Amino acid sequence: MVAQKQVAINDSEEQHIFTFDEISILEDPSNILTFNQIRNRDNLFITNKRSTPQNYNLHSTYWYRIKISNNGKTKNDWILEFFDQTIDDLTVYLPDNSGHYVAYISGDKQKYSNRTFAHKNFEFKLPHDIAHQVIYVKVKSNQIADVIIVLRSVSWFIHYALNEYFIFGLFYGMILIFSFYNLVMFLAVRRIQYLYYVLYNLGVGLYESCTDGLAYQYIWPNSPVWNEYAYGVALYFVSVFSLLFAKKILHLKVKAPFLDRLILWFIILRTLFFIICLFFEQSWFNYKFIEFIPLALSYIAGILVYRNGFKPARFFVLGYSFLFFGFVIKLLITLGVSWLNFDAFAYYSLSISFILEMFFLSFSIGDNVRILKLKKEKAQKRIIEQFKKNEQLKDDINKKLEGKVIKRTKAVYEKSALIIQKNKELVQMNKLLKEQAEEIQRINLLLENDNSKLKTNFTTVTRARVMLNIVDFEEFSKIYPDKESCYRYLAELKWTDDFKCKKCKSIYYIEGRTNYSRRCKQCDYDESVTNGTIFHNSKIPINKGFYLLYLLYSYRGKISSNKLSEILNIRQGTCWAYAAKAKKIILKKIKEGTFENDNWSSLILTDKN
């Protein structure tokens, strides 16, 4: 095993970044080991083999150990600084003069006011007069963090911090300027892509301030809970509004419909993923690599539209090329490429790429406006030229029309006299036609009366034929086509001798609750039209019941229930029940000698039979 390298404090070197074998690591998957237990397991620490260690297992606690030697000649005060501001729980154990260790707790889960240094990074002042220091660092974070440990002199830290905050001021100032400019453009021209671009820029600013710690320092210093997912919210806005901006600025709905639909589907899926992360599984916010998809979609869309001849896409593609480059560098850093973490340009590559991208996207917007302006001017020129041509054409046509109007007017005058004469003749003809129409109307009235009489005679003749001969159901149905006509006939048959109440024998009645029923005025008894007939509480269509009695009477009861069932399409059992009742009445009439003088309707009233 390679021994851990010790780092010597030297005034000639203002800062030193710990890397590779200068750091030892111990992973605690159980999350229960105490500091004293860790010190007793120094032999379990393994030497770091990467430029910058990371907490890959988010469910584990990581312990780091570094060794510092002090030759006693240094005049500077020194601090230990941690660059990654997204570490949730950070505890540094520093030795004191008595040989004991003091724990200093920090991290973005702690209130900002608890920090020793009012700075975006995590700093811890080192004891000045201890020759050899073994320092332990405990890290527990819900997202993958770069454990970048830097040894700095206090004087260099002040110099570096001032310069860094100055650069941050320029960076966020440019974002605000770009945002304000495009907001003014949106208010002026009311084109939605400007608003999307403003929201995209603000999303970038929020994400960058979350990752570099400035948001925690200046926006929500007393709300550390926000640090857990604020960067995820910012990334969602960056992703969605960058795609919406690309859709509008590149006119994908017209120039690349497939990519337009693909982007809409991704926005829907990205929104669902964001809701799951926000309310159910916040650890999924760590899957930042999915932002490669909207970046790639926008980049490919820009290249495709540019190749199809849309010139404003050139600056769009250029801007996204810088952003793509910065994203790749960040991805390589995350994957642990050793040489990248030692360069400030590499570390802030994504921030620089965002600025360059915003710069060229502004050019793209301006170029788009310029081209639209040129198209508008060309369109206006064409409209003016077309207007002049239309005016000339209108004058030529008017001259031709004037000559034709003069000729036509003369012809109209000549034809007017003829028209007047024809009108007089038409008046005479109309008068004659009116007289003829009145005569035709009188004849129609006479025909209607004759038709009514013929219809009545036809019905009478048909009914008489039904009473005398055997007819089929179709012809029978002409007399009794529906329930209404059957009920009407029952009422006429039942109350031929006028009404007499079955309960109180009163002869005074009014209309009942159902069709053709009668209600006694004296006792209020409501008698239905089927009461006292063979059809009372019947479940079969009443017109078929009529025809059934007709057939039984015509055959003197000598027709089988099977035959009736076949003819009427009624269950054989039902036909048998009706036939049994009717046959009794028929036999009775034959014995009494009244059968020949009656007809089939005499089987209906059970009260009289």
What gap, in angstroms, lies between the N and C termini? 123 Å
Q: What structural class do the secondary elements suggest?
A: alpha+beta
The secondary-structure element order is EEEHEEEEEEEEHHHHHHHHHHHHEEEHHH
Nearest-integer average pLDDT: 82
Domains (count): 3
Number of strands: 14
**Spans of at least 5 consecutive residues with low confidence:** 456-462, 464-468
Principal-axis shape: elongated
Global Rg: 52 Å
Question: What characterizes the major β-sheet?
Answer: 7 strands, mixed
What is the helical fraction, as a range of percent?
55-70%
Strand content: 5-15%
Number of helices: 16
Structural overview:
There is one protein chain. The protein is an alpha+beta fold and 609 residues long. The protein has 3 domains: 148 residues, Immunoglobulin-like, CATH 2.60.40; 215 residues; 131 residues, no CATH class. It is 56% helix and 11% strand. It has 16 helices and 14 strands. The strands form 3 sheets. Strands 1, 3, 4, 5, 7, 8 and 10 form a 7-stranded mixed β-sheet that branches. Strands 2-11-6-9 form a 4-stranded antiparallel β-sheet. A 3-stranded antiparallel β-sheet has the order 12-13-14, with no helix packed on it. A hairpin with a 6-residue loop joins strand 12 and strand 13. Helix 3 crosses helix 11, helix 8 packs antiparallel against helix 9 and helix 15 crosses helix 16. The radius of gyration is 52 Å and the shape is elongated.
